[in-house]
## 1
Amino acid sequence: MVIGTHRPTKLVIDRQAIKTNIRQEMKRLNDDTEIWAVVKANGYGHGMVEVATVAQAAGATGFCVAILDEALALRAAGFTEPILVLGITEPQAAELAASQQISLTVGSLAWLETAATELHQTVLQVHFALDTGMGRIGFQTPAQLQAAEAYITEHSKFNLAGIFTHFATADEADTAYFEGQVKKFNTLMASLKERPHYVHVSNSATSLWHAACNGNVIRFGVAMYGLNPSGGELRPPYSLQPALRLESTLNFVKQVHAGDGISYGATYKATKDEWIGTIPIGYADGWPRRMQGFHVLINGEYCEIVGRVCMDQLMVRLPKELAVGTKVTLVGQNGLHAITLQDVATYAETIHYEIACGFATRVPRTYQN
């Protein structure tokens, strides 16, 4: 892994923003409800271990990740809190997970049967996933769930520590589908003989807008990073503090003349004498190629991205000649204006999750506050 410490492009992560978002959410929760910080995908691009450290200090009592390797990295970093792998792990890794006290998600009886052959000395903590309408993983019927519960009761190699579902539309104004999922979840839960210790249905969106559904764990993900799960469709109950800025500097400045082309395909041509600045960031760093025509902020002014975004560089039209080394803000506040991850995502016709998670490892993460 190469990190670009010898160029000015960097992500700046505000620790205090993450703490503030967690503590604001904690104020709304019952005393018996825990926050487990979702730090998968390198902490949504913010840095997994660093975010976990901040979340722990702010009051998070557990962590959620997507794959076993992320959980193992947290254990290697010294975290002893409960860790749940939200995705399906190969059952052949059951013994490894058990030895590290990592909880795995189970969505079928067949998985349990295979994992049982891999377990020897250590009991594996598991959480049952219920597919109530997400259509991704999990038990779908009471009969499937009851068969898995019975298997665990008969086999001491497992402990059913928790059960959960994931809502597909908790971030939308129309609640009809959400309410249908809640009904199915309750039906499935009623089929169990014994309720596990951890019952969790709330991701960020569910906790923000459907808090009445909260179990005793909140899987606090995108809102922890200060991002609105709904994009802009719903207003959060408190002000979310964005934790990420993306900054660089001008590393080359030149004047071009009418008719001169910029970048691959010469898709931009100057209409008069213009000052063009080059910034050392491109699509290999996670800045999408389709951002031509968008803008960055320099000295508090919007400067248009002209020509196609290259793999490692992009060009902008400047209001005048500016010095090499002038600060450039791609995401964040600069002067009186700001560019948000949502602004970037809207222009790129995607969601801010994808933009944040897409920043490459070669872009260094620096931390403040």
## 2
Amino acid sequence: MISPSPPPPQQRRLPLRDFVLLATVLVFFTLIALNVLDNMHRAGLTPGFAFLGQRAGFDVSEALFSYSADSTYVRVILVGITNTLFLAAVSLILATAAGLLVGLASIAPSKALRLLAQAYVELFRNIPKLLILLVLYVAAVGGLPQVRQAFSVGPVHLSNRSVVIPLPVNDMALWLHIGGFLMSTLLVALLARRNRRLRERTGNAPQLLPVMIAIYILPPVVLALLSMPLSWSVPVLSGFDFRGGARLTLQFMVIALTLGLYHGAQIAEVIRGGIEAIPKGQIEAARALGLSSLQVTRLIVLPQTLRIIVPPMNNQYVNLIKNTSIAIAVGYSDLMSVSGTIINQTFRPLEMMLVTMAIYLLICLGLTSALNRVSDRLRMREGR
């Protein structure tokens, strides 16, 4: 028997043409950097980032942690980062939910649902997101009631200024509840992993839903029996505004809704394309076995669609994070907003642009890397 020939050796040396191309690009950007530095020196400017430790001297519309005008520029940049991440997280959830519902409606048997889904996609996909933002903002300011006439549902109050909701008090009981929730989540993840391996090995596994519900309910019940229940700060109308609770400003809600609607239309098309890529024979076979439409969607359509749509969804999520920068149009203190204010105060456009670009790059690269890992794991699972 003739043994197979060894594979050809891999070429480790960089080809000359690639070396010349990289050297040319490096020289080009080096010349640009030297020219910028020379112009700054001629203008009497010394490049550097020492100004970030100076007093900011301006307020922000909202912050997720303590901040005042006496804080440093570094702290206000952290405020902008956390506001951007919070806005992006809420917008991602809204866009994904809207995209999933509209994507499923676009392939529904009902012609009315398909027409409504198509109208939604065509409307929000072909209108600039900034225009959607301004229309929703003007409509919210003029259409929602004032604070004293706020629309209230229990302890939740909605006005043309904000929505105010109850907030757990930051005490020892809160952290114990958070710890119990994290431990329950870890235990549920371990049980789900064990259950999945048992199903792969034997083809059968016990139902985990009742056990999962009991695991999540047990810590709050135990803490309540130990006289350590959660304490809540409930908003109360005092004067011209509500006191207590947590506040989501009108600007935040309108921006999150805008990005959710706009990118929901894009995601709906991605999901529709992923569903239509599944062979129809599999769906027909599942129906022939007696599965209901809900079971077909949950067990056949969505798992395969997920493997198909993760790469294009990666692009949509990154675009959504970058599009949070339109928040500056309605005065929400995101990263772009605070960066612009810092530039106006310090006259350091180059340094702040580099800092802002680096932050956006790290956020988007982190999300892209995480979704690429998810995509790789799904493909590996499919290949087994």
## 3
Amino acid sequence: MLALAEFKTKTAAQKHTQISQTEHGYVVNGEKFYCTGSLFAHRIPTLVRDAEEREYLAFISADAQGLQRINDWSGFGQKTTGSGTVKFNQVFVESENVIRFDTAFSEPTLVGPFAQIMHAAIETGIARAAFEETIGRIKKARAWIDANVERADQDPLTIFELGRVAADVRASEVLLKQAAQSIDQAKPQPTEENIAKASIDVAKVRAHSTETALKASSKLIELAGSRGSQRADGLDRYWRNARVHTLHDASRWKYFFIGNYVLNNILPPRRGTL
């Protein structure tokens, strides 16, 4: 669970939540949006900035005086993640619960790749689950009239579409494993080069799994037929969860950094969004 994002800034990089040092520790003021897991958390790691624009993570007790958790997440997906707005009004936090965060990117570290591979794993998992669900639904679906077959699992075009999804899901899984291996290889001795490679490999699976999760969850409903749209079955949850989660970071920019790396040997930026 993290409180990173802010809804009212001009860009995602801007942060208005402030931390100020006092005689006995620190005080936090501001507001965070889409704070994953905050409704269930005992402590809420919160990204803050001081007057010199240095970034910190403040691990704040969920019961701290002046902290308000609001159950206002209204996204059409990821409904059970315990997300919501968190407001901070002169919230005290002890010095031992505040650590520098910007230094995680000023030097080569695995903070970015490790954070992103977790998101890639979520999307790959959604894709795999939607694909497995699709197989079962095809078994129950009716064949299309022009196929001239008895069952949907004999329909050549249904088989074709399922095969495409199968290939994409497996490709995402392989890319995920390769990215994990790159992270493991960089861990003993991080350098600019091996951290860049890990970031690029993670970006590959994040970009691919974004498309795969959306495709697999959409094809599930398509190949299930009209009965796949019934609210009681809830098959739309795969697509809704995939669509909301894949908005976490723009895959189009991941492709840009991948291309710039392989074509021009330009290292990607070090941050938690690639």
## 4
Amino acid sequence: MIEGFLPATVDRILLAFLEEDLPEGDLTSRLFFGTASSNRTVEAALVAEESGVLAGTFLVSRIYALLGGDVALSFGCPEGGAFEAGDTLATMRGPIHELLAGERLALNLTKHLSAVATLTRRYVDLIARHRPPGMRPLRVTETRKTLPGLRLFQKHAVRVGGGHSHRSSLSSGILIKDNHLVGTGGVSAALEKARREAPHPYRIEVEADTPAQAREAVAGGADIVLLDNMSAPMMAALVPELRRMGREVLLEASGGVTLDKVREIASLDLDVVSIGALTHSPGDISLRLDFLS
């Protein structure tokens, strides 16, 4: 296993990325380093230009394994480790042709996934500072707002940053959203059908856009109620009411949860906060690959 993934799964995704970038090989590098004599061994260093949390190291290793396995890597910062600007995160040694062929893909994935892990860590740390002692844990999760082809790796980066996973696909959980409610006739009708026909191992979650929908979901037997795009003051009044309804239900906040907003809701009696921005707009961590010889 590679970080919990089947090697074949990791390789299938990476091969698609490599085929996109190298459909006929690296033409420029082949012109200069395409012979045994010119394809000399060089060393390179992966250097951070800003602080962050490292994610994606196992992908760099697999990229170079798929390119021939002649590049040796040594990481000075572990997966999930914090780093500062100027730190050398990894050193590489191998044929210059192979190093150059994998450089852009390795950097793209590491920069992006490290940004996901870094942003997640900021949310997790902020909640830890503002969560009153003795309260139930408040989990930070992503959503399905992931980039095509990158979902498994982005969700891994969230976990590396200290977060947790939400459902991984439409097949992995029952989440009754607003359009489902329109099509089924409302919260109570949707819950009744889901409880009657859903596979028994699955919990049932309802997305509530209003306090009235949230109350109806709790009363109707939902296992999880997602409070969608509600303001902090609205949730501050609603959450204690839902807890007093007498059922143990997981309460999740989602929709527009910025770093400023998470400060406000960290003190509420919630179980989960799901944040789409962790994967759809984390920015980039600035890293570079310096050739040393």
